[in-house]
Amino acid sequence: MKRKFIHFTINNMKTNLLFLMLLISIRSFSQECPCVKTAIIGTDAKASTIHNNKLVAMDNVTIKLGESINLSTKENTGKVSWFKDGKIIENTLVSPKETTEYTVKSSLNGCPEVIAKVQVKVEKTLMEDLNNAVTIYPNPTYDYVTISSNSQEIKSIQINNLVGGNLKTFKIGNNLKQQTLNISDLTAGVYIVTIELKGNNTIIKKLIKN
Question: What pTM did the predictor assign?
């Protein structure tokens, strides 16, 4: 609203009329914009507005892999919507598998939209990191399979059937992080591979033999 200066005296009817028209205009503006909290006329007859659309998002948070967190706000006066990668989230109880940034927006009757961002950091456990560090390839396979670790050395490898029966055991020495195995004598099917790493950490993978 343009700044207006009105000079008037009490006995000047014309000036009083202009003052009254300005007051009516401000009240009308307040009714048209529901988000306006106050309209104040100062000594220089300047209109001032305060928008009531407030939003204070939750703090950034750290959770462990597999845990859930409910996205929330500390304070809001409008309708709140949560987004991930630009898409609206219907359920605010989330279980991200990796560190993720969420956006929250507050809308209130035509007021300027208010936006805030929240980061949910996901901490992976040592076993999760080790599990991701160990790979089996090719999988499915026919005669040979390679077990590779880009973290700890491999101590031993067991191949079991689905009911837990041990079919093959391989002892790995010389601090190797990769070993290729001959499984040509196994019948086609699904097997469980148990990999023991240095430090007595055990990783379990599924192997398919064609």
Answer: 0.49
Starting at the edge strand found earlier in the chain, the sheet holding 154-160 runs: 166-171, 154-160, 189-197, 201-209
Q: Check residue 11 and report its DSSP letter.
A: T
Assign a CATH topology to domain 126-209. Immunoglobulin-like (2.60.40)
pLDDT in tens, 39-63: 444 445 454 455 678 899 999 999 9
Report the distance separating Cα 80 and Cα 105, nearest Å.
6
Beta carbons of 114 and 139 less than 8 angstroms apart = no
Alpha helices by DSSP H, 33-156: 126-133
Domain limits, the chain: 13-51, 55-123, 126-209
Architecture of domain 55-123: Sandwich (2.60)
Residues 50 and 111: their CA atoms lie apart, in Å, by 10
